[in-house]
Amino acid sequence: MAEHSAPSGFSLSESSATWPSGGINDGKRPPLPTSFRPEKRGRADNDDPHDSSTPMDVSGPGWKSSTSSTDGASGDVNTGTYTRVHLKVKAQSRLGETVHCSGSSFVMGHFNPNESMTLVTTPEDYPYWTTVKPMLLPRGVPHQYMYALFSGGVFSSWEQIERERVLVPEGREMLVVEEYGIYDQDMELVPTGERIERSLVYERRRDESPATPRQINASEDMTDIPATRDEESKETGARLAARVAEDKTEADAKSPPSSVTGSPSQRFRQTNKLQSRYKRYMPSSYHPSPDAMLFLVCYHLPVKLSKSTEDGAWSAKWNRDSLISRSDNSIAESMSTTWVGCVTYHARSDQEELSEDDKSEITAILAEMNCIPVFIDRQLAANHHGGYCKSKLWPMFHNVDILDIYYSIWDRAEVIEWKEERNNGEWWEAYQTVNRLLAERVGELCKENDTVWVHDYHLLLFPSYLANACRSENRKRPKMVFFLHVPFPTSEVFRELSHGTQLLEGVLDVDIVGFHSFDHARHFLNACKRFLGLSYQSRRGGNLGVDYRGRNVVITISHVGIETTLIREVLNDPKVQEAARQLREKHKGKVLIAGADVCQRLSGIPLKMLAFEQFFGNCPSWKDKLVFVERATLTQTRLGDQNYSSNEIRKLVERITKAHGPECIDYEESSSPLTIEQRVTLWLASDILMVTSIREGLNLKPLEFVFAKGVNPENPPGVVILSEFSACCCVLNGAVRVNPWNITGLVNSLDHALTMSNEERLGRRARDLPYITNQPAANWTKQVLSVLHEATENPEGNEEYTNMEYMDTEIGRSHVMRVGDRSDFKQLNIDKVMAAYMQSKRRVFLLDYGGTIIARENIAMYVKKDFTAVTGKRPSRRMMEALTNLTNDPRNTVFVVSGVTKKSLTASLGHIRGLGLVSDNGALYSWAKSIDIDNTEDTNMQDDSNPTDRHWHQHSFKFDWRPVREAVDPILKVYCARTNGSVLRYAQQSIAWNFRSTDPEWGLLQANSLQNDLEEVIRDLPVNIIRKKGLLEIVPEGLNKGVVARQILTQDAAISNDHPDFLFCIGDDTTDESMFKAIYDYYAERTEESVHGRHGNGTYEDFLAAGDEGPLHHVFTCTVGKKPSNAHLYVNNVDEVEQLLQALSKALGEVR
């Protein structure tokens, strides 16, 4: 090859390249100069000018073909033909530099330097660099690529050329020889007529200077290089090899070995730091400072006061129904805790205020309970709590528009007038006053190292008042947490609050802002962005952060649990058990559906009544078998809403009982909330709990119901029908989720609950009971405090953030495969696949399961599948028929390769005798029952209980999960606790974090963050992370679909004494990408066997003459859905997969 010199002003050793458009190249795909425009493709001599199948040139003016492919293909990936391509590039590099290649195809890394191919050289071959193994590229399809320099293993620069190189694979195997940095539109690939081993040799030349063909050998000396340059190059190559060996020795000496592989760990310190960090912030590991105090601040002190009618003495006891009340396992048992709040008790009448003596006595009594009371007069309490909080903030925070508040049906009892004008001033002043009084009292008591935890919407201004007070005294404020227990409104509703900006600023003066649901947090973040112009980021560990006044305020999402110890005590109370028995006896022989709600419109009680009425109309046979037990609480706040709701409910009850019998509804109202004893009585007696709230914040009743029905395994499991608008919906994965506005859907859910099998009931209980049992309220408190500790006392001081303003699903990746940019990615042409199938003699099918031969289920169906272990959906009748017909042909080997369990896969497809099955991502596999696989390396697993009597094989490699568990468990448990609805599962061959039942947006953000953290700690462990839809799975390195695909091809060749000449592989998610890659690698590695195994001692010319009769002539990789994939073909949906398999199965008669 003729010697070329680098363009003036360009050096191969430059750390960055400047392109014609200016700027420093950042490692992304280089832009093309706008002066270059595509031209029409030149035709080979044997091309038919009228052949419409000839593709248009997508490569521009850099390609001209002088040879046709051996099969006459005109560049269509639908033909399934490939070429093995070797690269050999001449590049003068400096010490420590290596040459890489990246391009438009999968094997070239999609122009991502981090996924590029590494070329190698030796002191003898330098300055020539070659690919380690051939690339498998679709034949006749133009591929763009470029070379790049890496220095010390890190991307340095692209080669500076006018445009991307273009390569059109031709023939069975080809070697491309070219020079780094030398390429323009006048250069083309020209066959020399020579070969190196089995590859035809092509050189990159200019049109005007054709070269004379000559023999090239891989080991020949480059005689056209001057002797001095040749010696210098060899010396540089020797120094390069010595330096690499020296660097490796130094790394081995400095890095401790991995506990699993024994290999050097390059990230030992970072991994241990991340592990210890998560261990330190787990709730069970939280240990507060002994001299620090926790102040729990709320509007209502969690106590019940009473005054004796006999001697007038005051007494106090803890309110067991309060979230922040002291209990046996509360945070007060592990750190000094003080409660601060208001006392609004009125003694003998609503008009009489507490006397000074009463206040003194109450203060003394509460001091013994570590409670600090703040006394406010009746009018101030009315304006603050009954006015601004309950009449303004409460409905608006539940997304009730301000016009609905003023003109809604719950206020028709009063004269309609603008309360904003009449009362807003007094209410707002009262709200400020109460917040300021509490802040001043806490400010007098707290110190710098203390923690102040503020609860709920009554005290939104408290943090800013306390912070301002500390600033005015020139002292540091204590650490602060604010937790909201009601929903946060959308920005459109929040903007209607005239003081909304002040409320936001008041909350943001804390270190942590907490929510029970991501949906609530999302609205808060949107309000911060829209009204304060604040940006937010994703922090390491799964939390979010808002930049405010030079600080990063952490946003945490964590749903509180229940007091399981207290409920256990109540469950064992004989009085409660007797009360439950009496309630059952009252409705003997009937199914009890329970409801316990506040009597208000947003509770949705009328909606469940309407559903109950419609259910009786649809299923009259249930009239005497069903009773609806509803308990409504009259809170005496917002009386218009309460009175209207009560009247509406009573009318519905009267109508339903009149039509279907007086005993079908048991409805009662009470002026005080149900005690815990009354609630547990109702839970024990009932079979189903129905919650149909329209908008709701914290509601722990469904968690109580599940625990009460499940704590004793002998009790029959209950079923929860839960509104998707409830905050606890995100943590109860076993509930039947409903939209209460959809009455028909509500009726269907009720029917499902009534007819549900005991197996499914048990499965649903098993899904939720461990979470409820292991996440009591005390753990929730410690978890939030651990987040506070992490945010305020991070010893590393190097918290990582990810800006979320332009966040994509591929977080952290600069290079994403783009579907529309690929000339080697087309929609599958069924006729061309059929033609290849008809010509073939040996065929192999590798088919994914979920999303490929069976439609992927929605979220609700995922939940059902997880409970019963066997999904309710099966492949369609036509799909079953197609699979059966394909397996009936002895020339076909058909496998379904899935990540589901053996039980699920066998139940769906095990009856098809000729079908091979692979479950658990390759951990278990079963060949067609007509084939006896004798693999001594596998362990035969005969399942005697399997009705299809299949033989299953399990990979026999031994894997020690202990070091993996030690590394990942702290991280996984923290993410589980921080991501409502996620589930952690341990299996024999995997560890899985399931986030299908989480909020979709929040689950995706958490999954991306978790994957990044896990990749750091497992980098030196022999495991991989598999990303599925709604699932992150950790599996051993040797366990994936790609490994089993290679094994199937190898064993099939051994069984048939022949390689397949037709291979079809299809899947729909990321786990299937390993199959595509394994197939490309398998094909690329078949060269030696193809020549010597199939053709004996034939010459290479014999091999070329054989044309496409060699093994693996047609290879089809296909994905379901047009999306970024390593496959070369796509179909739109499962229906098209069914059509394809049906067409192939019906072709059996024609090819026999």
Automatic annotation (TrEMBL):
Residues 77-185 form the CBM20 domain. It comes from the Eukaryota. Residues 1-78, 201-271 are annotated as: Disordered. One of its GO terms (biological process) is trehalose biosynthetic process. One of its GO terms (cellular component) is cytosol. Residues 65-76 have a biased composition (Low complexity). Pfam families: CBM_20, Glyco_transf_20, Trehalose_PPase. One of its GO terms (molecular function) is starch binding. Residues 37-51, 227-237, 244-253 have a biased composition (Basic and acidic residues). Gene3D superfamilies: Glycogen Phosphorylase B, HAD superfamily/HAD-like, Immunoglobulins, Trehalose-6-phosphate phosphatase related protein, domain 2. Residues 8-19, 256-271 have a biased composition (Polar residues). In the N-terminal section; belongs to the glycosyltransferase 20 family. This is Trehalose-phosphatase, putative. It comes from Phytophthora infestans (strain T30-4) (Potato late blight agent).
